[in-house]
Amino acid sequence: MGKFIVITGPSAVGKTVLVKTLLSKFPNSTRLVTYTTRQPRPNEKNGIDYFFIPRQDFSKRLDNNDFFEYAEVYGNLYGSSKKKLDELLGKFDYVFAIIDVQGAKTLKTKLPNATVIFISPGSISDIKTRLQKIRKGIPNDELKNRLTKAEYELTLAESFDYSVKNLEGQFETACNKVVELLQKEN
Q: Which of 19, 67, 118, 174 could be stapled to 163 by a disulfide with Cβ–Cβ 3.0 to 4.6 Å?
């Protein structure tokens, strides 16, 4: 049976890049692709980045108790499939997932054996800079909402198994720290 590793943290802290890197460092690993009702961003692909589904389909899955966690984030629903996770844990040594902070808190109560790693920035201004860079043209009200939420989420960092800082220009250091933590757990 594989280990379930959840990467969480505020917007723009490098969660997706981190998981892509971890997948290359752990040979028998995969990513649990989660479901969302939001529209794909440029370069995102259905079934690879997320399963992009209509709100009505998401609601049906909720009614059928298909998700082990779900959350509404910035007006969109996100959820993780119980069945798919069980299937992947039976095939891989590590199953990585990127789950927002709210969903990760719910998950930790339902799946206490999961390892949840909180990724944090050096500062809130780092998040602002990253958001403006990766989401060019982000409206000011959305930017403000994300920064306010990030400030709150940073207060929850210690409620997870581990907290790792991804400082600007030091991604490799953060990645190596996560690898070290996972190797220690074996």
A: 118
